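Appendix B, record 7
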Amino acid sequence: MSRIRYALIAAAATATLVAGCSSHKAPSHPPVTGHAVAAPSTRAPASPTATATAGLSGTWSGQYSGSYNGNFTLRWHQTGSKLHGTIHLSAPADTLRINGTVTGGTIKFGTVGSTAITYSGTVSGSSMSGQYQVHNGSGAGGPWSAAKKS
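Structure tokens (predicted):
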């Protein structure tokens, strides 16, 4: 038998099989087995670190004291353990780009383009706190804290 004729017969048999199967009507309700069966998950399990620190994206409102006193607003975007966004400081008044990282409950971030101000601390749920350091030779710094607004 030639290959072409064999291919035509195989194609016809497949078409007949498919047509025969498509005419079978599936039951309108699932069979009752007495056991609940969960659908298989297609998502990979979340890592413990991602779960513990997920959700930092958004707006955070906070305050700082020590060498400088004032309020700030953080606007974060989180991708995995990386953070980027802006910080608006009330005194000295300025809005700066910031980058940072979060690993477990530890957060570190600082201004972009220089290391003028760095922040380190801990984050848990919708609150974070720690210490900031101004790197201008003055040794200025102090505590900070923030809470998530949205």
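Remarks on this record: The longest helix spans residues 3-22. Confidence is low (pLDDT under 50) at residues 2-53.
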